[in-house]
Design a protein that fits this description.
It is built from six helices and four strands. It has a four-stranded antiparallel sheet, with helices on one face. It is globular and about 45 Å long. By secondary structure, it is α+β, with helices and mostly antiparallel strands. About 20% of the residues are buried. The protein has helices at about 45-50, 75-80, 100-105, 105-110, 120-130, 145-155, and strands at about 5-10, 20-30, 60-65, 70. Helix 3 runs parallel beside helix 6. Strand 3 (about 60-65) and strand 4 form a beta hairpin. The chain has two domains: about 5-80, Rossmann fold, CATH 3.40.50.300; about 100-155, no CATH class. The protein starts with a strand and ends with a helix.
Length: about 160
Amino acid sequence: MDAVIRLEDVSTVYEGEKRPALRDVNLTLERSELVYVVGPNASGKTTLLETINGLLPTYKGEISVCGLNVRTQGRAVRCEIGYVPQDFMVEPGEPYTALDIVLMGRYGKIGLLRRPDRKDHEKAMEALRLLDMDGLAKRSMGKLSGGQQQKVMIARAS
């Protein structure tokens, strides 16, 4: 069985730092495996996920996701997987609706300079429907509870 996610001797260093935030990480995840990333504060959980997503550059090593090299095919990788950031809470005055936020997640699939079409709107509404949030699609993101905002962000990552 081919690995869905593979890290080989991966080290990540934050810009301006000398010590790696991740050092020599090796990890192989197969299809249908369920994995929890747990650890104390500042142990590298978010750094690991952002590195896998190609949001942080690797200093050393190779990462592949769904057979794609993260370093050279990062955009294609982000089309295959979703990521919900740790910090995303929205201020009450934020003008974007829940649907707007989910549609923003489509730009990784359709391209930054293209506008979402009817198919994208249907997919966004289906993602909200799966999380029982379709009734709040037109509500301002800033007016949703923290749990509702988290559901919208999960829908955005789909």
